[in-house]
Structures are given as structure tokens and as C-alpha cells.
């Protein structure tokens, strides 16, 4: 059996990205006819049409959709292997790193991290993007370099994980709120008007579970998709927000925070990345700074 032409993987990767033979050919510096011949070879090798005409463009077949992430990883891995290893020169490094984080992380840890990066590598930019879900696809396809979050069963098993810090839920109200005075009992806490933070629409979480053990249920007045929105509402009303303590340090400035009168499990916030970036010296440098900034923040909070 003849060996497959591995150059076709690079061709397929570009074709799937562009969805157009002419654009793919231009990107690979080939003629459209040469690209069409490569597509024919790909179809023969895979035993599938891979890309099917739809109007003026091409759409991937179900088989192509199955292969897309795998092909991308193989191509990126091949490029990394063949890329010459150079000593990292931070002063000459020009690169943009994309970090996907939950609300509060940038406000709490971003200023020191950005300052450190700017001092050591002025040509590096950090692009912080919000984390609307726990889908691992952005790390797999390379659109995200680093991500922070809680590792769960749905987290892709191949991802690398580095614990950053432990966090816990606390209650937050505006200054002058009735809960600023007196002991906060379970009954008093549950009787207040609460904001529920839920990105996926779930109406129950660890606080509901903890209260239910005492036959209590908090009164949910509104549901929001993020911690900053919850804290913004609590700051301007008598509503109660329950948010992660360390994650929202900066967002809670000027507000009254208190320990919950119920026991909830602390959780670990971790740094996640794809294994293909393990050996990338610039990526390792950035990971070390994120870890140090988060550790330093914890030490300052403990003092």
C-alpha cells in the first residue's frame, strides 16, 4: 500500500478554512487548477467528497467536519516540529496572546499582569476575551492560547492544567444594606431578594443545595449571565449577590462583603492550555507570569 502524501493535510487544512478553491490556492501560492487537482486527490484518498459546492463556495461534508479539528492539530504540530528552536528574546518578541477568562479575572489580575508583560516584552499584547461557555474547542483550534476556569467532567481530557488558586462564594450587598448590620443567619440570608448568576440557564447551584439541607430556599428576583452584572445590580439596589471572593476583588470595591451563613465547597480556578503549546518558550513565559501574579495576589490578600 503506497504511503499517503502528507502534504495533502496542509492543503485540506487550508481548503476547510477558506471554503473556496481560488482563495485556498492563493494562500498556498498555487494555481486554481493545481488546487483543484489536489482536492481531487484528497477526495480519492479519503473516499469522501470532503467539500461540496454550494453557490459560489464550498461547504464541508459531514466527514470533513469530523476531520477538521484533527487536521488542524496535525498541521500545527508539524509546523511546530519543523520550526527552528530559537532562544527567546523578549525585547524583540512580537506576539498577541488570547486569554479566555470569566468576569472579574481581568479586573482583579489584569493590571499587574499587563504591567509585567509590557516591561519585559513591549511587543507582546494580551487579548482578553470573555468565556461564554466551557467549550474546549477554542483551545483545540488555536483561537485561544490560555483559559482560566474550573476543571469539570466536560473539560477536554487532553488539555494541560495548572492550578492557580482556590476560591469560595461570598455574599455582597451595597453599603448601608440591612445585612450590613447584625448577625447574618441562614434564615435572614434566604429571606432577602437575591440575584442568581447563571451562564447556562440552570436555576440551582451550590448555594441552593446548601440551603436545601436546612429546608430553606432563597428568593431569586432576577437572573443574570455574569458576576459584574450581578454586582452592578447589588450596588444600586437592595438585592444580594453571591459571587466568587478572589475572582471579584476589584469588582466589589466600595461594597460590603460577608461570609455565607451556609457551608459551600471551595473550588479551584486553574489555567488551561493545549499540549501543542507545552514547548513554546513564549507561551511558557506567559504561563509563569499568570501563575505568579495569581499567587502574589493571594499572598497580599492574606497579609
Task: Summarize the structure in words.
The chain has 303 residues and is of the alpha/beta class. It folds into 3 domains: 7-82, Arc Repressor Mutant, subunit A (Orthogonal Bundle), CATH 1.10.10; 95-167 and 268-302, Periplasmic binding protein-like II (D-Maltodextrin-Binding Protein, domain 2, 3-Layer(aba) Sandwich); 169-265, Periplasmic binding protein-like II (D-Maltodextrin-Binding Protein, domain 2), CATH 3.40.190. 40% of the residues lie in helices and 22% in strands. The protein is built from 10 helices and 12 strands. It has helices spanning 7-18, 21-27, 32-46, 62-82, 105-120, 137-141, 186-191, 206-212, 227-235, 281-302, and strands spanning 51-54, 57-60, 95-101, 124-130, 146-149, 160-167, 169-173, 193-197, 219-224, 240-244, 256-259, 267-273. Strands 4-3-5-12-6 form a 5-stranded mixed sheet, covered by helices on one side. It has a 5-stranded mixed sheet with strand order 9-8-10-7-11, with helices on one face. Strand 3, helix 5 (105-120) and strand 4 (124-130) form a beta-alpha-beta unit. The longest helix has 22 residues, at 281-302. The mean pLDDT is 88.
